[in-house]
Design brief:
It is built from 20 helices and 12 strands. It is α/β, with parallel strands linked by helices. It folds into 3 domains: about 140 residues, Response regulator (Rossmann fold), CATH 3.40.50.2300; about 160 residues, Rossmann fold; about 150 residues, Helicase, Ruva Protein, domain 3. It has a 5-stranded parallel β-sheet with strand order 2-1-3-4-5, with helices on both faces. The radius of gyration is 29 Å and the shape is elongated.
C-alpha cells in the first residue's frame, strides 16, 4: 500500500484501547518522519493518522476527531499555523503540539498564543513526544472527570453502602465482590427503588477503575432525538442546533465506568450502536465517518423483563446476551424484611444529616414494628421517603408510630392515628405553621413523593425543599428553646 493510500487510515494492528490511548493526527512533509511515527506512536499505545501536508490534514479533520495533533510549523502550502487555526475552530478540544526548528521559536510562541498545548523543537526526540502526549492524557482525564461530575454524576446523599445481611442481600454482596475486579459487563435487575444504581456504584468502587469517572445515565430520561448525541457525541454542524463539537458520555467515561440505567428503554437504532461498542470498543460521533476507540466498562440495569421485550421485538437478543455477561438480581423489600430496622436507621441518618451512631435511639421499637408490617411496593426508595417524612414530623425528637404516614399506621394493628395538628402547638398557630401543616398533609397523601406533592401544591421542587428545610430548622430551635 502506498503512502498516499494509507496516510488517512489508522494502523491496523493497533493495541487494545486503554484510558492512556490517544487518537493522534500527525502532520509533517518529511517522509522519513511520517514512517517513523506510523510505527512508534502505535507502539506507545496510540492510534495515529499521518498526513503529508496541511491541505490533507484539513480534509481528514472534516471526517474524524482527534485527542492530539502534532503539527510541523513549516510545510509547503498550508503552514502548521494555518492548520492550528482551523483546528481550533472545528475541534477546540483537540490538543495541538507544534514542531519547529530553533530558527522559528517566535512562530512557536505565537502558536502557543493561538491555543497550542505545547511545542517541540526539531529534530524531535521520541522521549519528548512521549512526555508531551502523557501530559495531554493527564489533562484529558482531569477534564473528563470534571465533565462527568457536571453532566451526569448525581450528588451522593450520605453513605453509599449496601445495607443488609438478609440471605438475598448477602448473595448480592458476594456476587459484587466476585465480579467487581473484572471488566465484565454486568446486568443489574430489580424492581423500581431496590437500589440498582447503588449496586453499580459499589461495583465501580470495588474495581480497578475507581480513580476514574463513574457516569450514570437514565436511558428512559433521554430525548429520543438526542439520545445518540448524548451517548456518542456529535460533530459541529451535524444537525440543526449543533453549533459546537460535543463529547458523548462514552468519551466522558473513558477509562472509567458508564452506567446505563433503564437500558430496556433504548430504541433499536441505539441498541445496534451499543452492541457495536461492546464487541469492538469503537464508537462514532454523529456527523463523523471514522470510528474511534474508547476504554469504558459498561454496567446496565433495568426493572423490565428483557426476555419479554425480545419476544415483542423491542430488544435485540444479541445485545441481551452481550450485556448479560454477569447478572445481579436485587431482592424486593418484602423479601428482605430482616434488613428493615438497619435500613431505616441508615436512611434516617441520611435524612437528618447526622452520623449513624447518633440515630440508633431516634426511632422506637414500636415504629419499627409498623415499618415491618408494611408491604413496601416502592422498596428502599419508599422507605427513604418515609424516614425523611417522619424526621420532619418528629421535629428532631425520637420517631414514634404517630410520626409515620397514615397509610402505614392504618395498616398496622392497634397503632393510634394522630393528626399532624397534634404535633404542633395548639395555641397561637402562625400562618407559617398552618402552611407547613398543609404541606405535610399533601406529602403524606403522596406517601412522601416530593415531586408529586410539589405538583399538587403548584410550587417547584426546589421551593418545597426550601420550605421543608426551614420547617426543620424552626422545629430544632423550638426543641432547644
Amino acid at each position: 500500500m502506498s503512502m498516499n493510500d494509507s496516510y488517512n487510515q489508522q494502523v491496523a494492528a493497533s493495541p487494545k484501547p486503554t484510558s492512556n490511548s490517544l487518537r493522534v493526527l500527525f502532520v509533517d512533509d518529511e517522509k522519513s518522519l511520517q514512517e517513523f511515527m506510523r510505527t512508534e506512536l502505535p507502539r506507545m499505545g496510540h492510534d495515529v493518522t499521518v498526513c503529508p501536508d496541511g491541505k490533507t490534514a484539513l480534509k481528514v479533520l472534516e471526517k474524524a476527531s482527534f485527542d492530539a495533533a502534532l503539527l510541523d510549523l513549516r510545510m509547503p502550502g498550508l503552514s502548521g499555523i494555518d492548520v492550528l487555526e482551523h483546528l481550533k475552530k472545528v475541534a477546540p478540544d483537540t490538543e495541538a503540539v507544534v514542531m519547529t526548528g530553533h530558527a522559528s521559536m517566535e512562530t512557536a510562541i505565537e502558536a502557543v498564543r493561538l491555543g497550542a498545548f505545547d511545542y517541540i523543537t526539531k529534530p524531535c526526540r521520541l522521549v519528548e513526544i512521549e512526555t508531551v502526549l502523557l501530559k495531554i492524557i493527564e489533562k484529558r482525564d482531569l477534564k473528563n472527570k470534571n465533565l462527568a461530575l457536571q453532566n451526569r454524576v448525581q450528588a451522593a446523599e450520605g453513605s453509599s453502602v449496601l445495607i443488609g445481611k438478609s440471605p438475598g442481600m448477602s448473595a448480592v454482596q458476594k456476587l459484587i465482590s466476585t465480579v467487581a475486579p473484572s471488566d465484565s459487563t454486568v446486568l443489574i435487575l430489580g424492581e423500581t427503588g431496590t437500589g440498582k444504581e447503588l449496586v453499580a456504584r459499589t461495583l465501580w468502587k470495588q474495581s480497578s477503575r475507581t480513580d476514574k469517572a463513574f457516569v450514570p445515565v437514565n436511558c428512559g430520561a433521554l430525548s429520543e432525538n438526542l439520545v445518540e448525541s448524548e451517548l456518542f457525541g456529535h460533530r459541529k454542524g451535524s444537525f440543526t442546533g449543533s453549533d459546537r463539537d460535543h463529547k458523548g458520555l462514552f468519551e466522558v467515561a473513558n477509562g472509567g465506568t458508564l452506567f446505563l440505567d433503564e437500558v430496556g428503554e433504548l430504541n433499536k437504532n441505539i441498541q445496534v450502536k451499543l452492541l457495536r461498542f461492546l464487541e469492538s470498543g469503537e464508537i462514532r460521533r454523529v456527523g463523523e465517518s471514522e470510528p474511534f476507540r474508547t476504554d469504558v466498562r459498561v454496567l446496565c440495569a433495568t426493572n423490565r423483563d428483557l426476555r419479554q421485550l425480545i419476544k415483542t421485538d423491542d430488544f435485540r437478543e444479541d445485545l441481551y446476551f452481550r450485556i448479560n455477561t454477569f447478572e445481579i438480581r436485587l431482592p424486593a423489600m418484602r423479601d428482605r424484611r430482616p434488613d428493615i430496622p438497619e435500613l431505616a436507621k441508615h436512611l434516617l441518618s441520611r435524612a437528618i444529616r447526622k452520623p449513624l451512631d447518633q440515630c440508633q435511639n431516634l426511632i422506637t421499637a414500636e415504629a419499627i414494628d409498623v415499618l415491618l408490617e408494611h408491604t413496601w411496593p416502592g422498596n428502599v426508595r419508599e422507605l427513604a421517603n418515609v424516614m425523611e417524612y417522619a424526621s420532619i414530623i418528629a421535629g428532631g425528637e425520637t420517631i414514634l408510630p404517630e410520626h409515620l404516614p397514615n397509610h402505614l399506621r392504618d395498616a398496622s394493628r392497634g397503632v393510634p392515628v394522630l393528626s399532624i395538628a397534634q404535633n404542633t402547638h395548639p395555641v397561637s398557630r402562625t400562618l407559617e405553621q398552618i402552611e407547613m401543616e398543609h404541606l405535610l398533609r399533601v406529602l403524606e397523601k403522596h406517601q412522601g413523593n416530593k415531586g408529586a406533592a410539589a405538583a399538587e401544591l403548584d410550587i417547584s421542587l426546589k421551593t418545597l425543599y426550601n420550605k421543608l428545610n426551614k420547617f426543620q430548622e424552626l422545629e430544632q430551635r423550638r426543641m432547644v428553646g
